[in-house]
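Margin note: ligand = FE2/S2 (inorganic) cluster.
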Amino acid sequence: MKLTLKIWRQGGKYNGEFVTYKLDNVNEHMSFLEMLDVLNEQLIEKREEPVAFEHDCREGICGSCSMVIDGRAHGPMQGTTTCQVHMRHYKEGDTIVIEPFRAKAFPVIRDLVVDRSAFDRIIQSGGYISVNTGQAQDANAIPIEKDQASRAFDAAACIGCGACVAACPNASAMLFTSAKVSHLALLPQGEVERKRRVLAMVAQMDAEGFGKCSNVTACEAECPKEISVSNIARLNREYLAATLAGELT
Amino acid sequence: MSWFSKFITSSIGQKVVMSLTGLFLTLFLAVHLLGNLQLLQDDGGEAFNVYAYFMTHNPLIKTISYVLYASILLHAIQGILIWRSNKAARGTHRYAVNHVRSTERASRNMAWIGIVIFVFILLHLYQFWFQMHWGNLVYVEYDGYTHPVKDLYVLVADSYKNLGFVVFYVISMGVVGFHLWHGFWSLFQTIGLNHSKYTPLIKGIGGAYAVVVPLLFAVIPVVMYLKS
Ligand code: HEM
Ligand code: SF4
Ligand code: FES
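Resulting structure:
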């Protein structure tokens, strides 16, 4: 199939602008990233700069393939990362607009690559959890109710991709932070540092310059792991409890 | 920084202020509506005027009215501040292609809607509240009351003879409904009240509230116009 791509180029000879490319040999079995690989091969053959984009696992688990495709973070499919979008969802003659994630806290490094290290700093600010060392613990040493474990696991499914920030009109990182706070807050293993952790992570989130949550829920709609905004309410709850009920330190 | 200033300047703390002032304003709307519906009684305004006198003289109501003025200001100022910092957080470049789900129309425009409501509130206060407190309203006496009361009813009835005001009020109520369409549910979410059993209920009640309350408010000027 023949496609027209409008891709944001920034860095090198490009000043931050859309450049239009034509591809006329796109196979419907290709993944979206393979389609970009084909484009880059052609650019290299023509001795032009290939389009920089991030990718690693290409199987929907690492969260690095960040880009906004026709206005949607990670493309048009529900609950799907860019690398898992396949070209069969497009048709002959389509024009596809590809842009980097847009948020002040995610500055563009080059073309479609943004710096998402703000997320790493939020995770780091959460700190450690206290566990007994020594012999490896038996997996079932601490009984956890099945539904509770599932809720924690659903939150832990967050791959830190940043689509929530990209989709949010306020560039808020609440869905991400709430997923990270939730998966430990829901488990006994997270209990020891529970209050400390939520206060530190929210403070770091604010310091990174992310926006405030207006409960638009665009994050939930675009999240490739379909993290629920009920986690955001839990984050609000955890934060309020830690602030209002926590002792002065 | 004290724990409280840390909290109140945090992103979540700032939103909690929006939520609590929004909750107060939302509840106030219901009380205000119940009072105003007395305008539709066929008694030449007696019930309404007596009620207006009570509302401006009862010490408890007066205290609550100061909380109300403060809430409006706090909600509006905080709302604009949040909106500005959120705009900054988006960065200088926006997307060339925007994908907006229809369910997000209200929530993405809370600040604009809020500013329109604020302008409405100012005009509305000038038109009735200011006149009630400091305007030259005529006094009327009713049987069974020891004191004369100001005839606010006549002022309201006169205003709603003007089709322009009627249209202005009806449109304004539509705007308030739009704000509540998102705001009602949102205020619960902001203070952490989300539950698999009760959130659908909150959303349902919020939708109904956002339609019914502004609609009943809007009915008042329309009926009074038709009666005049
Ligand atoms: C009848 C008057 C009003 C009522 C009943 C009302 C109610 C509400 C409620 C319940 C919320 C949701 C709070 C939350 O998400 O936690 C809200 C949000 C908001 N209101 Fe109002 N409001 C009113 C007037 C105004 C005015 C005058 C302004 C601004 C000039 C305003 C600006 C905002 C903004 C910007 C938000 C969104 C905050 C955010 O989610 O980031 N509102 N309002
Ligand atoms: S919450 Fe979803 S969209 Fe946000 S970082 Fe995690 S997986 Fe990505
Ligand atoms: S490349 Fe790892 S999730 Fe897409």
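Chain B has a mean pLDDT of 95.
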